[in-house]
């Protein structure tokens, strides 16, 4: 038992009132929001990749069809924009950036969300690749902010790579938290990746072997396995950070405000005062899962 500077008595490593770390713990480690240690996933990278494989095995064909559809549309939009730039140069100057931002970015965001659904073993359809188009203005604003800041930071090579990892969670946060604005999602992505950018870099390095096999098969293996596996694994790391944040009671301030503004007891959710809804899993048994706009989505394994 220890007493925090705010007066709260606690038994764990973090204050349940203000989120501060117990004195004497975690010196030298990176700190996140509210002055508290940013929690890291307790599960090894190998287990995260294993769960990504399991999720992909359950819906491999649907994931492949969704990603192939996104790739074909990306090629089509890019090709049309290129043709217009040749036939009508003045119009092409406007169409190329518009096609990149308005369509390709939304398709890329849809691919990230599909990877998240694969990791969480949630049932989805091929047309879910267009999820970002269903809330067009919100996703467009968030993904455009991500693209803008990533492009600006890429003018400084090393810093650009670091910042790309900082903003990599934006599509997941926009999907999990409809109550957050684009700028809030960008800020929370930076907070969640604080102290984990090297882990994400090492995670990408672990796919070097798969990428070499992909080149040897002229990209066929990438369509069929490597890309969906990679996306599910990246989404899995995000889910693990979120899950650890919940367990240690270290959560971003904006997420707290989004919940407490609705009463704090889950009453703002449809389906009952607990904020849970009943669904059926693959075995036919009824399970209770939090709605999509709950505080955090966590994988079933957590």
N to C succession of SSEs: EEHHHHHHHHHHHHEE
Strand content: under 5%
Judged by helices, strands and strand pairing, the structural class is: mainly alpha
Residue windows where pLDDT falls under 50 for at least 5 positions: 24-37, 259-302
The largest sheet has its strands arranged as 1-2
Overall body shape? globular
The number of distinct β-strands equals: 4
| Helical coverage, percent range | 55-70%
Radius of gyration: 21 Å
> How confident overall, as mean pLDDT?
75
Main beta sheet strand tally, sense and closure: 2 strands, antiparallel
Q: Terminal Cα separation, in Å?
A: 27 Å
Number of contiguous helices? 12
Write the layout of secondary structure elements.
Blueprint: E1 2-3, E2 9-10, H1 45-58, H2 60-87, H3 89-119, H4 131-134, H5 136-153, H6 157-166, H7 170-176, H8 182-192, H9 197-205, H10 208-216, H11 220-247, H12 253-260, E3 277-280, E4 286-289
Antiparallel strand pairs: 1-2, 3-4
Helix pairs in contact: 1-11, 2-3, 2-11, 3-5, 3-11, 5-6, 5-8, 7-8, 10-11
Could you please describe the fold and organization of this structure?
It is a single chain. Helices cover 59% and strands 4% of the residues. It has 302 residues and is mainly alpha-helical. The chain has a domain at 44-248. Strand 3 and strand 4 form a beta hairpin. It starts with a strand and ends in a 13-residue tail after the last strand. Mean pLDDT is 75; it is low at 24-37 and 259-302.
């Amino acid at each position: 038992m220890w007493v925090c500077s705010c007066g709260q008595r606690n038994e764990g490593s973090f204050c349940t009132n203000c989120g501060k770390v117990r004195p004497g713990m975690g010196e030298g480690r990176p700190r996140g929001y509210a002055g508290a240690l940013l929690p890291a996933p307790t599960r090894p990278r190998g287990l995260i990749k294993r769960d990504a494989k399991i999720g992909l095995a359950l819906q491999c064909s649907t994931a492949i069809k969704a990603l192939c559809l996104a790739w074909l549309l990306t090629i089509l939009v890019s090709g049309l924009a290129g043709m217009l730039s040749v036939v009508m140069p003045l119009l092409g100057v406007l169409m190329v950036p518009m096609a990149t931002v308005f369509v390709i970015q939304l398709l890329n965001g849809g691919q990230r969300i599909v990877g998240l659904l694969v990791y969480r073993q949630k049932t989805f359809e091929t047309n879910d690749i267009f999820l970002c188009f269903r809330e067009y203005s919100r996703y467009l604003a968030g993904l455009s902010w991500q693209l803008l800041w990533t492009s600006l930071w890429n003018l400084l090579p090393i810093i650009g790579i670091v910042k790309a990892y900082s903003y990599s969670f934006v599509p997941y946060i926009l999907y999990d938290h409809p109550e957050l604005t684009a700028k809030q999602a960008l800020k929370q992505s930076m907070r969640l990746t604080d102290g984990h950018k090297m882990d994400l870099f090492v995670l990408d390095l672990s796919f070097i072997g798969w990428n070499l096999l992909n080149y040897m098969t002229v990209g066929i293996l990438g369509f069929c396995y490597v890309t969906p596996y990679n996306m599910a694994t990246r989404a899995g790391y995000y889910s693990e950070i979120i899950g650890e944040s919940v367990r240690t009671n270290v959560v971003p301030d904006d997420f707290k405000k989004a919940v407490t503004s609705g009463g704090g007891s889950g009453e703002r959710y449809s389906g009952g005062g607990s904020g849970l809804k009943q669904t059926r899993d693959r075995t036919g048994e009824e399970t209770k899962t939090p709605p999509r706009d709950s505080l955090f989505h966590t994988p079933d394994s957590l």
